[in-house]
Structure formats: structure tokens, C-alpha cells
TrEMBL record:
Acts as a Ras effector and participates in MAPK pathway activation. Probably acts as a regulatory subunit of protein phosphatase that specifically dephosphorylates Raf kinase and stimulate Raf activity at specialized signaling complexes upon Ras activation. This is Leucine-rich repeat protein soc-2 homolog. InterPro entries: Leu-rich_rpt, Leu-rich_rpt_typical-subtyp, LRR-SigEffector_domain, LRR_dom_sf. Belongs to the SHOC2 family. It comes from the Eukaryota. PANTHER family: GH17740P, LEUCINE-RICH REPEAT-CONTAINING. Coiled coil: none annotated. The keyword Nuclease does not apply. It holds the Pfam family LRR_8. Keywords: Leucine-rich repeat, Repeat.
Amino acid sequence: MQIPDRVSEGRGYIIRLVGYLSMCHDQRWNVFQWQRSVAEQQFFVRVKLAHKMDVVYTSDSCDSDSREQKTVDLGHSNKRHLDDDLLRVSKSKKLAEDIETVLLNHNKLIRVPLSLNDFTNLKVLDLSNNRLEELPEVITQCQLTTLIVKNNLLTDKSLPKSLLGAAGHGLKELNLSGNRFAHFPEQVIELRSLKYLYLGGNQITNVSKDIWKLQNLQLLSLGGNLITEIPETVGLLNHLHALVLCDNLLEALPASIARLVNLKSLLLHKNRLRHLPREIITLRNLTELSLRDNPLVVRFVKDMTLNPPSLLELAGRTVKTCAIRYAAEDLPRTLIEYLQTANCCVNPNCKGVFFDNRVEHIKFVDFCGKYRIPLLQYLCSSKCVADTSSSDPGSEPNSSMMRKVLLG
């Protein structure tokens, strides 16, 4: 039976199109193929030659180089062991030296392949979404800039005693989110080049006071833990752009937060915050503030009873408010030091002072032109609370302003 000319022409067109697409595909990809024995399947490792840097980070890093990148992608292989697969690649020394990224994510790995040490120029290693219970010393021998080990089974005893070595000196991104850490891993403090640190989704209850030593840190993610307190030393992270503290047990923030002059994003939702430190209004570069799901209220201490001040407090207030002069020989040294701790009442209509006895008051103020946030201020007596409310018509936010605070 003779095929009509139109059908014949259509088939010819399809054949030519498939050939053209195949040629284009061959030009863009170099495929390295090794032939296994007859009983084995053929094994392919695809090495993508990217003309533009297309970083295969699985976390949210924005740090990248502009040189060519070559990747071995064994992710989503659903395997427990990948040693043999990596060994086949590393048999070719030249190829092993060219590899910069190894993706072993979404498998069933229970240990890290030791053959990773053969990739002498390895920069990015993704071990996320496996079943790893420890990181071996071999990790520290690689010249990594990015190490992603999120969503595994790592605990406080899973890391090497030191993360320094070839990896530690150049490591810029470390992602340990979604594991089982109960304490802040102190080994991280050694990584002075670190820019991005992800520790969210663990069971961490504390933050190391030595966190200030990570002076290059730009992003610190601690959301989804059990943290109750943030150390004052966080305020010394001068280059920090993003601070994620959401979904913890925080009831207050340190005043040192105001020192983070480069901070652009501050995520505080799902905590127990009732107020924010007054100093936070100085963060002029802040463009993202999330406060939803916190018990922020206008009058946190409305019904709080004021304990009567001690005789020492009353005497000290009298000396300060009446400007009574005294010399060093007139009073014991301890009383002189006590008088030096006097704090002025923030009520502009009051000239009083206080020492240990004070009244806490929540005042809402405009912040960055976007929010009305509750700030804690201290007054010398409960009378000053009424004075500040009546003198400031904007101290009581309306419902729309309150929504801005709660939703962030």
C-alpha cells in the first residue's frame, strides 16, 4: 500500500526535528559513561558544564563564585550506600579533581562515603534528607565552602571534636537544620569564615555566648527550637543581615539587638514575647519584622500590684530628687555606689528617679513607618502610667495598628 505523500513528508519532518534536537543536546552536555560487567547495569555520571554559575545549593544561600561548576548528582537514588558509585568517578584522577559539587541528598545513607576525600577540589556537599547519625573526620579534610546536612538524625555527639581542617577555614555555609541537636554545637564557633548558619528545626535550648566570634555571619537561623533566651553577645554580630528566631520560647530580647545596624530581616513570630526592647527602634535598615502569634498586649502590667519601696529606696530617691549634696566621707562607700545606680523616670512630666522598685509599662510607638510595636519602659510609680497615657494620644493603638503588630 502506497503511503500518501503528505504522511511521508510529515514523518520526514519529525525525523529531521528529532535529529536536530539530539545534536543540540549533545552540544550542551558531556556524558561520561563507564561499562560495568555483564551482570551489572550501566552506570552514568553526568557532569554539567555550566557557562554561568548556577549554584546547586539546596538551602537559601546567596553566596556563589563565578567560575565553571561541575556536579556529580546522585540525589534521589534511594540507596543506602553510594561508595561504589563515587569510587567509579574517582578512578579518573582528572575527573575527580574537576568535581566541585557532590549531591547525595534524598537517599537512605546511614554513613558518609569515605571516598569523598578523593575529590580534592570539592566545594559543595549536600547530604540532606538521609539517615546519618554522625559526621566523620573525612568531612574536615575536604575544602568545602558549603556543607548541607539538614533533615538527618544528628545529635550533640554526632559532630567531630573539631570542624576545622581544610573544610573549616573556608566553610561559608553550614546547614544542620532538621536534626536532633539539644545544645548549640560549640564546634561551629571555630568556623570564623562562616556567613550562613542554619540550625532551625532542632531541640536546641541555648545559644552559645561565644556566638559573637562568628564575625562574618550574615544569616543566623534558629527557628523551630526550644530557646528561652538570647545572649547579649548576639549584638556583636556586626555583619548580620537576617536573624530568624521564630517558633521558640522567647519571652524577651536583649537590648543589644539594637547594635545590629545592618539587620534587614527579624523573624520573631510564634514566641512568648510580650514586649520588645525600646532600643529596637534604632534599627533603620530593618525591612522585615514578623511578630505574629506572640502575646503582645497594650497593657501588660495594667493590673500588676506595686510592691512598696524600701526605706533605702525612699531615702535614695529623696537625696536625688532634692539634689542633696554629700561628700565621700559623709556616707559609706556602699551607699555612694547605690546612689550612682539611680534611673530617671521616662515620663516627661516627672522628674523622679528609681532604683530597684519600678513600674513596667508598655507603650506603642511607630517603627520604620510600617509598624506600631510595643516597647517596655520603666516608670518610678503607678501615677506616671496614667500621666503618660493622657499626654500621649497615640499610646493606645487602634485595631488596624494592632493587626500590624501581630501579623508583622
